[in-house]
Amino acid sequence: MKKLILVVDDDQVFNRLLVEQIGDMGFEVLGAHSWAEASVILAEREPDLVFLDLRLPDADTPQLVETLAGQFPVIVLTGYGSIRNAVSLIQAGAAEYLTKPVSLDELEITIRRELENAELRQRNAFYQRQMASRRPGPLIGESKAMDELRSLIDAVAPTDATVLIQGESGTGKEMVAQAIHQGSLRHEREMLTIDGGTLQETLFESELFGHERGAFTGADRQKKGLIEEAAGSTLFLDEIGETTPANQAKLLRVLETGTFRRVGGAKTLKSDVRFVVATNRDLAEVSQNGGFRSDLYFRLASFVIKVPPLRERREDIPLLAEHFLQRFSRGIERKLVPEARKLLLAYDWPGNVRELRNLIERAAILAGREERIRPEHFGALASRREDAVVFAFDHEPRLEDVERECLRQSLARHDGNRAKVAAVLGISERNIYRLIKQYELGD
Ligand SMILES: Nc1ncnc2c1ncn2[C@@H]1O[C@H](COP(=O)(O)OP(=O)(O)OP(=O)(O)O)[C@@H](O)[C@H]1O
Ligand SMILES: [Mg+2]
Hints:
The chain is α/β, with parallel strands linked by helices.
């Protein structure tokens, strides 16, 4: 596609000349004789480079340079080659300034150089954004559960073993997968991800294994699958519980033999990927009930990492909250007031770390310039009745699960005061002691 260059100069003759000359260099050019005219064009088109006359009838060019320079390179045309003007223009962000009359050579060299610079800058920014979004943050948490998790990760990461990560939604399974990849010898290449849940059976298959030309309607050329793309790296297979039985069989084959075939292909290819898979379902149970191939389950179960739900490691809640608060506060030093902290600690987080993260991000926005995060910033969470008992199970609960959870929350709310809890729940204190023991809720 041709690059678009906009020339803004009220000198009719010079403008036409410049437009013609730049057009001859193979660029698309538009001319405007005032800032008003230029604005109309800018509302519709995105130029790759703009020439601005230093003296425009209806705008202050140095000021324009300041606002426009971040969007595209601006080259200022000046009738008076005064150094003083030039310095202040460059400081304002102009890419370059040219003194009229402009020689053809100088014009072309400047345009090509500035376009190239802009492209480099853009590509750089793109890579940096990508790196930043990929660079996995540290796993936050100092609970015993997190310590154990970290030592499991450290132990298995450098091996090539297949790992099954199990945990409720939002607990950090993908982060764990990244940590395993980063701790492996394969970390120099990026980890690739495929989602077992979002793709239909045949699409998943060709995504993963690739296909040969003519394998199905629309397969007009050969395509490598993610197994090949991720050679030498790690392939993260998310939501493995959602894959179809046929694909489970093919996965089992890769895991057992290290070989695979592209869809519609006859060649047997060797795989060089390390598989890390994740699910938020209890695969042991699902496979017992016939919802998942048990041979694949047993193959995967040789190394399982369970990521515990947030409510089972409450001591991590404040740490994570502070972590996200810093992250979403853009340099503002922020603090949770004690009541806000209490609110977070009392909640059960069915959506786990992701829910906490989203809540904090929202609170940071609502707090605006305020430094103190107060319960009001937590919206619905703050208006929850203090004495409400909320149940969140990742399975259909048994009555005793409900009883245990009810007792646990009551104890937490009344600071472990057994007499109070007995009164609230309408049973004798003796029974409270018995239940605490039975459910191992004592300290
Ligand atoms: N221990 C942690 N420290 C810091 N951030 C975390 C931690 N655990 C999770 N997060 C953050 O919480 C969010 C959810 O994590 P992640 O996507 O890894 O969860 P998941 O278990 O894969 O969820 P799902 O089952 O819904 O796919 C992410 O933004 C992640 O960065
Ligand atoms: Mg995930």
